């Protein structure tokens, strides 16, 4: 099928995909990027074909965007083929071609998320107009009378593309249970109802049952409703187990193609009652939670800006009649729609509340949205969004509210959250991590994983980030303010920072976000109960607030710079507050000299440095054991100025975890690292200039996890068997040896090795000596979302 004018997108996309399949296994240095591009193409080809089909029914449509993307696909095919001519050692061209592949992938994803979404919407609207009368005429009387029929969706703005994607998953032969997930108010029920009324779905599934479940379902009553729809009568059930058994028998006796929709399910165990080994029977579940029973999961996204505006206008302005109303200022309208964050429930509720209202009401609503207090005047939003929190354990609810401490639209390091939760709520790191996972499964946060093992307790937490929908963040802020245990000072409202009179606050968590224009004119404030302080800013020089002096309970300090070069911190002359700290995290900071502090940090247990400059600091002669007598963890990531570590760091004899990752200039570890006798975990991921481990490392008899992945010049030393406690080894991306050290067979406690395919074969030869060894062949699936941060950051201060 061709587009108008002879443009054929499907063929162009398929040619790029074929080129990738022929190329990627021959150029391992581009494999990550080609895998990502392949995934994108496989996802959008279905949309292209659907666009071809729809386009054939409409004539004389514009095609400028289609022409543009066809050119990009043709260039993409040549780019993929040219990758074959770039050898591994050609760093310059590798970098150039990698960037072009990333840009092509970005272009395709953006086009088919925005342009085709809008194009398809326009096409489908025309088709739906033609089909609407046909649907109304052909609606069977028995369907309209039953109690288990799908509701008629009120509005469907922005759901045509999700409907196509959801149908594709539903029609997969190997899936029995399909989950439709998303936060409350995102339109899951509407999309499910559209699916039930879709002609293609009804042609396949002759019987469709739609059941509202909610948080406290009555199983026998729901099964009874199904019986009444199928048989016009319902038997009596002894109990829930009997109801499920009789339902299974009924479905087996009636070999008809059936689709069961369970709407708003809160508990995975409830779904399992309806899973039967019956052909021609499938289940669609809408839920705020991702459940283990799902064979496939479709995550519903928020509405795009055009669709959000269309839904808001539909909800706000009368569609019939001659009602008199004054159309609001366009800028005000845009601000309100933007403030609804693309959430259909919010757009509908706010839109209806503004119907036929004067301009002053619109202005008031815009102020409410910008100040996060919209929940005060719209209880339905609070009730709908807040119910997801009410069923969580109290500590998990507190963890959710802590997310409001970080600026909106920011990727939050999971390590920062865990540092806060451990000290603020008195839980260990394992519980903190699983609280994060629970918030994710409830769709209250989104997890961004850089690699497959991101977030494992024995993995690198630096590979795990968190994002949150703006409206859910606003809910967290609203609840936090009511409790008074957190004080959030936003960039958009720095009035708290301008007060002249000293003010006392009893909040336990203080988060201050300042913009580029803030001049560090701190007002007088007192925080006697503060245990966590987050300073988030744009600046090349930053004066720490003087009120930190009186923070006598401060345990966690997080300093984040979003500027384009390192920030120099000021006001460290009398840092008495540092003596109470347990965890410190610095991002894009010129690390201050320990000479300025001149006092031991007796309670400090963990230091985290991300994209910091600490070259000058490490050149100083410091007595580390005196300065950090109780330090147990050091985490250094993307600090490219590090060339070597000082020998004095080896005196930290109580250190348990040392992580130095993505430090590409580091060429050697201290010779006396074996003095760290308590060290249990050592991560050296992607320190590309490291070629060997110091011999003294063999003295670390408590070391159970060693990560040398992507240290491309590193090989295992002959003395590796001296690490008697080693249980996990990650050596993926290292130099592939012709053989393993002969002593490797003596690693009797080694349970897990992560490596490349060639090295895996060598380890398999040792299975006779290490029968419990699990060998995992690494499949790189690195997420490159953070490249934008690195490109915009000037690594020279």
From TrEMBL:
<dbReference type="Pfam" id="PF00931">
    <property type="entry name" value="NB-ARC"/>
</dbReference>
<dbReference type="GO" id="GO:0043531">
    <property type="term" value="F:ADP binding"/>
</dbReference>
<dbReference type="InterPro" id="IPR027417">
    <property type="entry name" value="P-loop_NTPase"/>
</dbReference>
<dbReference type="InterPro" id="IPR008808">
    <property type="entry name" value="Powdery_mildew-R_dom"/>
</dbReference>
<dbReference type="Pfam" id="PF05659">
    <property type="entry name" value="RPW8"/>
</dbReference>
<dbReference type="InterPro" id="IPR003593">
    <property type="entry name" value="AAA+_ATPase"/>
</dbReference>
<dbReference type="InterPro" id="IPR036388">
    <property type="entry name" value="WH-like_DNA-bd_sf"/>
</dbReference>
<dbReference type="GO" id="GO:0006952">
    <property type="term" value="P:defense response"/>
</dbReference>
<dbReference type="Pfam" id="PF23598">
    <property type="entry name" value="LRR_14"/>
</dbReference>
<keyword id="KW-0611">Plant defense</keyword>
<comment type="similarity">
    <text>Belongs to the disease resistance NB-LRR family.</text>
</comment>
<dbReference type="InterPro" id="IPR032675">
    <property type="entry name" value="LRR_dom_sf"/>
</dbReference>
<protein>
    <recommendedName>
        <fullName>RPW8 domain-containing protein</fullName>
    </recommendedName>
</protein>
<feature type="domain" description="RPW8">
    <location>
        <begin position="1"/>
        <end position="150"/>
    </location>
</feature>
<keyword id="KW-0677">Repeat</keyword>
<dbReference type="InterPro" id="IPR042197">
    <property type="entry name" value="Apaf_helical"/>
</dbReference>
<dbReference type="InterPro" id="IPR055414">
    <property type="entry name" value="LRR_R13L4/SHOC2-like"/>
</dbReference>
<dbReference type="InterPro" id="IPR002182">
    <property type="entry name" value="NB-ARC"/>
</dbReference>
């Amino acid at each position: 099928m061709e587009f108008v004018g002879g443009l054929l997108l499907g063929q162009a996309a398929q040619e790029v995909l074929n080129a990738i399949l022929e190329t990627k296994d021959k150029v391992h240095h581009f494999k990550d990027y080609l895998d990502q591009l392949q995934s994108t193409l496989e996802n959008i080809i279905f949309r292209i074909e659907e666009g071809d089909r729809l386009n054939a029914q409409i004539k004389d449509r514009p095609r400028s965007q289609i022409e543009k993307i066809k050119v990009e696909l043709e260039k993409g095919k040549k780019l993929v083929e040219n990758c074959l001519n770039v050898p591994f050692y050609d760093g310059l061209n590798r970098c150039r071609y990698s960037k072009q592949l990333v840009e092509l992938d970005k272009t395709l994803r953006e086009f088919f998320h925005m342009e085709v979404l809008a194009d398809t919407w326009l096409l489908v609207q025309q088709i739906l107009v033609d089909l609407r009368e046909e649907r109304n005429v052909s609606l069977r009387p028995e369907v309209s009378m039953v109690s288990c029929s799908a509701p008629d969706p009120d509005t469907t703005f922005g759901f045509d593309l999700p409907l196509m994607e959801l149908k594709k998953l539903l029609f997969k032969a190997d899936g029995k249970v399909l989950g439709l997930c998303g936060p409350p108010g995102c339109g899951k029920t509407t999309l499910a109802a559209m699916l039930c009324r879709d002609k293609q779905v009804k042609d396949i599934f002759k019987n469709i049952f739609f059941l509202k479940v909610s948080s406290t379902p009555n199983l026998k009553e729901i099964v009874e409703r199904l019986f009444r729809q199928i048989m016009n009568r319902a038997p009596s059930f002894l109990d829930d187990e009997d109801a499920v058994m009789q339902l299974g028998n009924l479905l087996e006796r009636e070999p008809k193609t059936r689709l069961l929709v369970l709407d708003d399910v809160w508990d995975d165990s409830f779904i399992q009652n309806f899973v039967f080994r019956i052909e021609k029977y499938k289940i669609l579940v809408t839920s705020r939670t991702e459940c283990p029973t799902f064979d496939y999961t479709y995550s519903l996204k928020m509405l795009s800006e055009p669709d959000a505006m269309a839904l808001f206008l539909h909800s706000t302005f009368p569609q019939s009649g001659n009602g008199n109303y004054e159309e609001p200022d366009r800028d005000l309208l845009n601000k309100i729609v933007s403030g609804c964050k693309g959430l259909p429930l919010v757009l509908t509720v706010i839109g209806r509340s503004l119907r036929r209202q004067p301009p002053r009401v619109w202005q008031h609503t815009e102020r409410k949205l910008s100040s996060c207090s919209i929940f005060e005047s719209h209880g339905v939003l609070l009730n709908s969004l807040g119910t997801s929190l009410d069923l969580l354990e109290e500590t998990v609810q507190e963890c959710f509210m802590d997310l409001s401490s970080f600026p909106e639209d920011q990727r939050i390091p999971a390590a920062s959250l865990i540092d806060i939760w451990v000290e603020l709520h008195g839980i260990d790191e394992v519980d903190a991590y699983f609280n994060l996972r629970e918030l994710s499964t409830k769709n209250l946060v989104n997890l961004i994983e850089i690699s497959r093992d991101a977030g494992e307790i024995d993995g690198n937490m630096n590979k795990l980030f968190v994002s949150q929908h703006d409206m859910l963040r606003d809910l967290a802020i609203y609840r936090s303010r009511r409790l008074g245990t957190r004080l959030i000072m936003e960039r958009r409202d720095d009035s708290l920072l301008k007060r002249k009179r000293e003010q006392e606050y009893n909040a336990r968590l203080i988060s201050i976000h300042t913009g580029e224009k803030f001049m560090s004119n701190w007002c007088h404030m007192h925080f006697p109960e503060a245990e966590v302080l987050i300073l988030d800013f744009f600046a090349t020089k930053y004066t720490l607030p003087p009120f930190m002096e009186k923070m006598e309970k401060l345990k966690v300090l997080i300093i984040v710079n979003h500027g384009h070069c390192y920030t120099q911190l000021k006001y460290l002359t009398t840092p008495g507050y540092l003596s109470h700290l347990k965890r410190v995290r610095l991002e894009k900071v010129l690390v201050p000299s320990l000479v300025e502090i001149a006092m031991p940090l007796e309670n400090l247990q963990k230091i985290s440095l991300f994209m910091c400059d600490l070259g000058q600091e490490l050149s100083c002669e410091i007595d580390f054991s005196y300065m950090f007598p109780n330090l147990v963890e050091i985490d250094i990531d993307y600090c490219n100025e590090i060339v070597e570590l000082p020998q004095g760091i080896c005196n930290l004899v109580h250190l348990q975890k040392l992580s130095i990752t993505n430090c590409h200039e580091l060429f050697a570890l201290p010779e006396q690292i074996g003095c760290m006798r308590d060290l249990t975990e050592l991560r050296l991921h992607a320190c590309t200039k490291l070629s060997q481990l110091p011999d003294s490392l063999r003295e670390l008899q408590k070391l159970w996890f060693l990560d040398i992945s992507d240290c491309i010049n590193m090989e295992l030393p002959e003395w590796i068997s001296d690490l008697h406690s080693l249980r996990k080894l990650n050596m993926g991306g290292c130099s592939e040896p012709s053989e393993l050290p002969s002593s490797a067979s003596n690693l009797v406690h080694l349970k897990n090795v992560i490596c490349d395919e060639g090295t895996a074969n060598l380890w398999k030869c040792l299975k006779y000596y290490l029968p419990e060894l699990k060998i995992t062949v690494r499949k790189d699936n690195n997420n490159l979302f953070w490249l934008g941060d690195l490109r915009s950051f000037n690594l020279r201060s």
